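FAQ

Q: What does a record look like?
A: Structure on top, sequence underneath. For example:
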C-alpha cells in the first residue's frame, strides 16, 4: 500500500487549497477513502470520508460546508477541496482507505502527509 499526499502549502485565512492523494497497492475503486489531519500537539482526526462510488460523503462538523472530498477512480486519486480556510485548519493532512461503518482508517501504514498552513 502506498499513499502519496500532495498539494499542501501556505494560504491566508479565507483562502482555498486543493490537496490530492495518489494511492497504489490495493484496489482503489473497491474502498471508501478518507482524509485525516493532525495539528501540532494533537491527535489525528477524521476530516472527511467518501464511499467507493462517491455516492456518500461525510464530514467532521468543523469542516462541513467548507471542505469537499472527491475521487477519481480512473486515476486512483482522492482530493480534498478546502475553502474558507481558518487558522485552526493548520495541520498535516493524510489520506487512507476507510470503513464507512466504523469511520476508521483501514491501513496501519500512512503516507508522509502534506502540510497545510493557514496564516496571515
Amino acid at each position: 500500500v502506498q499513499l502519496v499526499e500532495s498539494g499542501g502549502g501556505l494560504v491566508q485565512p479565507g483562502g482555498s487549497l486543493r490537496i490530492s492523494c495518489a494511492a497504489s497497492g490495493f484496489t482503489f475503486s473497491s474502498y471508501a477513502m478518507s482524509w485525516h489531519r493532525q495539528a501540532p500537539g494533537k491527535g489525528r482526526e477524521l476530516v472527511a470520508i467518501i464511499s467507493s462510488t462517491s455516492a456518500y460523503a461525510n464530514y467532521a462538523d468543523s469542516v462541513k460546508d467548507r471542505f469537499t472530498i472527491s475521487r477519481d477512480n480512473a486515476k486512483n486519486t482522492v482530493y480534498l477541496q478546502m475553502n474558507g480556510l481558518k487558522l485552526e485548519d493548520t495541520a498535516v493532512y493524510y489520506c487512507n482507505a476507510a470503513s464507512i461503518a466504523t469511520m476508521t482508517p483501514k491501513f496501519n501504514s500512512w503516507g508522509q502527509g502534506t502540510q497545510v498552513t493557514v496564516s496571515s
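Q: Is there anything notable about this one?
A: The mean pLDDT is 96.
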